[in-house]
């Protein structure tokens, strides 16, 4: 079923003659030390902004070269022309955002052109909230107490 949905999303993007898209990517490591990478794209169609999940992949290695190669391979395998890649949006982890060897840099080198990197707004918001919690003792106590109830 996921393959049918993915094909429909890709068909919509290709059929709509979307001239540009932004790459969205985030990963998380599970207990077995496997990196789960979600890759999505943001595009404009008929004046509306859409975000679609294109693929969820797994990898044992999460170094920048592996991640960049995986990303470009997924774009190719889904028929998404990297010439239409307008920008990249990741979290602020150095493996993704690094100017010297990060995924964003390796993708630009592979494509032989500038593809601006944007730090994901949701990740920035999370960093602000975590900083706030660490500096307001009442919030820290409250959230610790709330967390206790999630185990029931």
TrEMBL record:
Protein name as annotated = DUF4371 domain-containing protein
